[in-house]
Design brief:
364 residues, alpha+beta
């Protein structure tokens, strides 16, 4: 077995758990190198203490699993099959004593939870999330290399977006240009729905791009990322078009000061909550605390938002190999919003900023 699967098997032994049943696309990918989006169909991975693992996926994707390097048993099923019956047959052949199963409780539907209970009515069901979160939190060198390349492509996306700004162009005009140019570089999937917001719409942290035209004096906010080899990037930059007001400049410089201070504070052994508090204190002292409405950032990897949550109540200490975002923002309805976001990786004695697009206030 690969090292990741072996770590799960070792954990099962340590906790006296009969097996793990992993069902989310990101975690199956992490453990098998097989990435698929099964939609409503079942995807699953059984991991045992000593037995070889079993992968469950639709028949049409069995060849892809093999191509990804999976060498163990695969339970493939058609749309007319009941995969749970096939699972039961396979497990019964192994004659295993199953008394405790670790599940992704945050992911498993109630229906599938009940199906597992039908297989083993007296089984104890425990959570697999904590172990999987901790495994994925510390990135290996090959993961870091992919994250760096994904960050470069995010930088490119912002560069394209800024260049595309012109009076009268709509948010969706600019968005389409960004994604078209990234597809020409081989990017099939964005980390999330690309965000291009202009004017007062920038004051909505999760605003929806539309046909709003860009006008001189507007702030323009870009939030985007790409998926590269299964890993995500995530960058936000805010620029001004034509000219910038004193109020907009003050908000921008406050966010920039907070973002730079939070980035500087990222070192091994520093409490996650202190990173949030570093930025939040600067923004609050400037009188904008009410308008900083979200955490400082989030873990980053296979999922664009993954463990840990970078909020001020988190007592976890930063460790080498952790990857996350730093993204303070101020959102004032009558002025507009500014957010500046970078992707970070903790190193032996500090942190590396993966996204490199300039952060000084740019007036295009």
């Amino acid at each position: 077995m690969n090292q990741r699967l072996q770590q799960v098997s070792n954990w099962l032994k340590e906790k006296d758990i009969s097996c793990g049943f992993i069902t989310s696309t990101p975690n199956v990918f992490y453990l098998t190198n097989f990435y698929t989006e099964p939609h409503e169909r079942l995807l699953g991975l059984f991991v045992f203490q000593d037995e070889e693992p079993i992968l469950i996926c639709p028949n049409m994707e069995v060849s892809q699993a093999r191509s990804a390097g999976w060498q163990y048993e695969i339970i493939g099923f058609s749309d007319t099959d009941n995969p749970w019956e096939l699972i039961q047959k396979s497990l019964s052949k192994r004659n295993l004593a199953i008394s405790k199963i670790a599940l992704e409780k945050e992911h498993l539907t109630v229906d599938r939870f009940e199906k597992v209970k039908e297989l083993y009515p007296s089984v104890e069901l425990v959570s697999a999330e904590e172990k999987l979160h901790m495994l994925r939190m510390i990135k290996e060198n090959k993961e870091v290399a992919i994250l760096k390349e994904a960050a470069k492509l995010a930088d490119f996306g912002v560069e394209v977006g800024v260049a595309a700004i012109a009076e009268g162009k709509t948010e969706l005009d600019v968005l389409a240009t960004i994604e078209f140019e990234l597809k020409k570089k081989g990017i099939r999937q964005m980390s999330f729905d690309t965000m291009v917001l202009t004017g007062l719409k920038t004051a909505a942290p999760h605003g929806k791009p539309g046909l709003d035209p860009i006008r001189k004096g507007d702030l323009v906010l870009f939030d985007l990322g790409v998926v590269l080899d299964g890993y995500c990037s995530d960058i936000t930059r805010t620029v001004a078009f034509g000219h910038v007001s004193e109020a907009q400049t003050e908000v921008y410089n406050t966010v920039l000061k907070a973002q730079l201070a939070a980035v500087e504070a990222c070192k091994p052994g520093i409490r996650v909550g202190d990173i949030d508090r570093t930025a939040r204190t600067i923004i609050s002292d400037a009188g904008y605390g009410y308008y900083f409405t979200h955490r400082i950032g989030h873990g980053l990897g296979i999922d664009v938002h993954e463990f840990p949550s970078m909020n001020e109540t988190n007592d976890m200490l930063l460790q080498k190999g952790m990857s996350f975002t730093i993204e303070p923002g101020i959102y004032v309805p009558e002025i507009g919003g500014v957010r500046i976001e970078d992707d970070m990786i903790i190193t032996s004695n500090g942190a590396e900023t993966l996204t490199k697009f300039p952060k000084e206030l740019l007036v295009k």
